[in-house]
Backbone:
């Protein structure tokens, strides 16, 4: 009897355990687990969060704002007593505050331009892929043509026309960076649109755009997230490149590209003016590209 | 083959035309102009200036005057550098930019190909890891930063190479610019070659060749090379426009006399004539080079020709 009860208890235990374990993992959980198993991606996430927090909150704790001139410290190396932790530039402005402001600007550009490019790319690609046939051929031919043309020329022309307002810069970059996204979304849509559930939706009388937004787009999350992450560093590079050439963000506001362009010519005498912004720029780019690679491995396991 | 090439040429012509049209109208419709100075010009002077640049004509007439000029190789006057016509400026800068671009293109493609092939043959051994790591560097660090760092290290600290500037014959001045320009291109090529080479080396016909007793070098050159080249050739088109973007930076950083430098200066000065002329020329060059790449691709891959 005792034995039987003991056996019963073990069995119950086992059954409980089974029940607990059977609780299945969703695809997202699976992907997250794979992402967190990737050391480089995990470190990148932490570093990125740190950079974002420092760039957004840091300026409030600094003794000097980014556009304030300290007449007693012009072209000075790092000086902790005065609160210039990374030195000052030729105008006596605090380099740390300016670098953080530049980082903020780069992050802002990345956020706005990436959103714009993702939205355009998704809609364009999904429409081309879903309708197929001649519409697809024409739309994709246009993308091919745009691919061949150097888009930086068009960004520069936009800047020439509309002056150097940062908002326009963001939108302009976004409007020209959507090509890869459109191609990827189109490819995915082509493979999804013949599935049974799309057929079911069509049989149920859903209109094409309802199908695209309700049934196709949610299934594109994986590739879209991956390529959005991979687009961010490209956009940061484009923005800093334009600012480097003097066509981007204007004084007294600054961006990492502007800071590098001012720091580079004087780097022999005032090295801190080049190294601080260069460090932040490279750090962000490295983190975003490792994170993108990590996401690709996590969300698209067959590609490994 | 010939008909394929002809079709490609025909399809490229409208693209050039559309680009000219779009850029022309965008630039002309833009608010502000090159004559909006700090001090307003006397009305008579302004009227004469506008007449000289045909700005007093209706827009559509201006457009046809411009297109007619472009067809004859005349890009109109520069609006800021008033002693020069745009064609003359471009004629000064173009040979240099082409020379710089082609040197970097060949160096990058060949170097990238060798690196990629080496990595693929030694897959998952130390040369592979080393090469994959080296290839990441120019892809992550933007070229303007890289150019400045290289300038500092080799030019300022070590005094090995000149920092910038160029006069005909000073080949040492071109070493750093060419390397900086070719590195990202080479890195992308290397990535592509590594991927496609690994794929090709895993196919059945390579296994057959190996089982027949062919040596590794013979397998590589006879059987693996051509199919592994295909993705590279299809990348060369977009690669050219990356190179061009790079040449804007490199010419600026190293103070080289190419059209990229004119383009940036013109954009900063709002010199519409020069911006438009440079853009049209760039687009034209890119399309011509893309055509060559397409024809090359069709030669390598017969499937493309038949479509």
Residues:
């Amino acid at each position: 009897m005792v034995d039987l009860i003991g056996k019963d208890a073990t069995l119950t235990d086992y059954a409980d355990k089974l029940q607990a374990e059977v609780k299945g993992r969703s695809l997202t959980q699976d992907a997250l687990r794979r992402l967190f198993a990737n050391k480089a991606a995990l470190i990148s996430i932490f570093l990125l969060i740190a950079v974002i927090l420092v760039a957004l909150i840091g300026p409030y704790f600094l003794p000097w704002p980014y556009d304030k001139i300290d007449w007693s410290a012009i072209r000075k190396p790092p000086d902790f007593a005065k609160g210039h932790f990374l030195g000052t530039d030729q105008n006596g402005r605090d380099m740390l505050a300016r670098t953080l402001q530049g980082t903020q600007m780069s992050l802002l550009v990345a956020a706005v331009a990436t959103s714009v490019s993702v939205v355009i790319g998704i809609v364009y690609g999904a429409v081309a892929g879903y309708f197929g046939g001649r519409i697809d051929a024409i739309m994709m031919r246009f993308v091919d043509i745009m691919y061949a043309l150097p888009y930086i020329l068009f960004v520069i022309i936009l800047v020439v026309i509309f002056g150097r307002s940062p908002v326009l810069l963001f939108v302009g970059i976004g409007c020209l960076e959507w090509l890869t996204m459109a191609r990827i979304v189109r490819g995915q849509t082509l493979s999804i649109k013949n599935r049974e559930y799309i057929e079911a939706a069509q049989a149920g009388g859903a209109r094409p755009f309802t199908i695209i937004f309700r049934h196709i787009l949610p299934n594109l999350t994986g590739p879209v997230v991956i390529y959005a992450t991979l687009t961010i560093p490209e956009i940061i590079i484009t923005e800093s490149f334009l600012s480097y050439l003097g066509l981007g963000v204007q004084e007294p506001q600054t961006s990492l590209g502007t800071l590098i362009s001012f720091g580079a010519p004087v780097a022999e005498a005032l090295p801190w003016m080049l190294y601080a912004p260069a460090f932040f720029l490279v750090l962000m780019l490295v983190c975003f590209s490792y994170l993108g690679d990590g996401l690709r491995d996590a969300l698209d396991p067959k590609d490994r | 083959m010939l008909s394929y090439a002809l079709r490609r040429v025909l399809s490229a012509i409208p693209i050039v035309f559309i680009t000219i049209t779009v850029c022309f109208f965008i630039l002309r419709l833009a608010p502000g102009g090159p004559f909006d100075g700090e001090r307003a010009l006397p009305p008579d002077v302004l009227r004469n200036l506008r007449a000289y640049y045909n700005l007093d004509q209706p827009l559509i007439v201006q457009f046809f005057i411009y297109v007619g000029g472009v067809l004859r190789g005349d890009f109109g006057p520069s609006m800021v550098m008033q002693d020069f016509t745009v064609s003359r400026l471009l004629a000064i800068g173009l040979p240099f930019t082409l020379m710089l671009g082609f040197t970097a293109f060949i160096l990058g493609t060949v170097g990238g190909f060798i690196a990629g092939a080496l990595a693929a043959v030694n897959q998952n051994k130390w040369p592979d890891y080393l090469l994959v790591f080296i290839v990441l560097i120019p892809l992550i660090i933007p070229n303007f930063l890289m150019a400045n760092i290289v300038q500092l290290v080799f030019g300022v600290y070590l005094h090995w190479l000149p920092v910038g500037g160029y006069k005909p014959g000073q080949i040492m001045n071109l070493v750093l610019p060419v390397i900086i320009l070719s590195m990202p291109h080479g890195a992308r090529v290397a990535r592509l070659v590594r991927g496609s080479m690994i794929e090709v080396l895993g196919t059945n016909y390579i296994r057959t060749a190996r089982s027949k007793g062919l040596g590794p070098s013979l397998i590589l050159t006879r059987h693996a090379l051509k199919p592994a080249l295909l993705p590279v050739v299809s990348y060369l088109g977009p690669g050219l426009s990356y190179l061009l973007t790079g040449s804007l930076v490199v010419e600026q950083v190293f103070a080289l006399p190419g059209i990229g430098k004119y383009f940036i200066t013109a954009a900063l000065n709002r010199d519409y004539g020069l911006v438009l002329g440079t853009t049209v020329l760039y687009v034209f060059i890119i399309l011509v080079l893309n055509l060559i790449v397409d024809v090359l691709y069709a030669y390598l891959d017969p499937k493309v020709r038949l479509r």
